[in-house]
Design goal:
About 80% of the residues lie in helices and about 0% in strands. By secondary structure, the protein is mainly α.
Length: about 260
């Protein structure tokens, strides 16, 4: 019983925090409307606390990601609004990575071993393939904006990806997308004063999505190379074995 409690207590804690956020209505503060209405206050608050503000905001961001509260994009825009491009990107990437890693560890502890023991057939094959090229696959999933962030936090934990690979691929893979939305936040004040509305779909614009797809394809190069190399080695081994067999048969015939 103690082991069961230890495994599922973190899941229960995250679930309770998630429920509290919605029961208390805190999730309503993570919206573009709230950001637009209070952007001056947020900017002044951050300017008055150059050290404390990034830390406090980063903790809030990480907690929001850990309990899977919708609105990570809004928080990333807020980071750009309050801290500018460089600091805002660093805060968003670090906080999102911490929150994602928290989900990963909780899921791995609670469900990973159980599900992996029951894995068979194509699920087991997918698990082996994912583990062999975890960093490449995770980079693709992080770079492409079509995959839900929370889902990419859970699947690697279930498939037995190492923590080191998960953290590295997450931290690197979310940098481009985070930088895009931080740049939106960095110019939000001027945009709002001009009567404009920020475009949350900017990530899908060809000029932005194209390079992301290119980076994702580049991340798959090691996987393709490994597969091609393995196929060539297998072919060479087969040819060598066939030649040895022919040599053996020829020697036996001469005798």
């Amino acid at each position: 019983m103690t082991n069961v409690v230890r495994r599922f207590l973190p899941v229960l804690v995250l679930a309770v925090l998630f429920a509290l956020v919605f029961v208390t209505g805190l999730h309503r503060y993570v919206s573009l409307e709230m950001l637009s209405d209070h952007y001056l206050v947020l900017r002044e608050w951050a300017a008055a606390r150059p050290v404390a503000a990034p830390l406090i905001f980063g903790l809030i961001y990480a907690l929001a990601v850990a309990i899977s509260v919708p609105g990570a994009v809004i928080l990333t825009i807020a980071a750009g609004l309050m801290f500018g491009m460089i600091v805002g990107t660093v805060v968003a990437v670090v906080a999102a990575t911490i929150g994602a890693t928290t989900v990963f560890l909780v899921a791995q502890t609670a469900f990973g071993d159980v599900l992996r023991r029951r894995a068979h057939g194509w699920i087991a094959a997918m698990e082996r393939g994912f583990q062999d090229d975890a960093v490449s696959y995770l980079l693709v999933l992080r770079l492409m904006p079509v995959f839900p962030f929370w889902l990419v936090n859970l699947v690697p934990a279930i498939l037995g990806v190492r923590l080191r690979s998960f953290v590295f691929a997450t931290a690197i893979g979310i940098v481009p997308g985070s930088a895009v939305y931080v740049s939106v936040g960095n110019g939000l004040g001027s945009l709002l004063m001009a009567g404009g509305v920020p475009d949350l779909g900017i990530i899908f614009a060809p000029s932005v999505l194209g390079p992301l797809v290119g980076l994702a394809a580049l991340a798959l190069v090691p996987v393709v190379y490994k597969r091609v190399r393995a196929a060539r080695l297998a072919s060479a081994t087969t040819a060598t074995d066939a030649e040895r067999l022919r040599t053996t048969i020829s020697s036996d015939s001469e005798r």
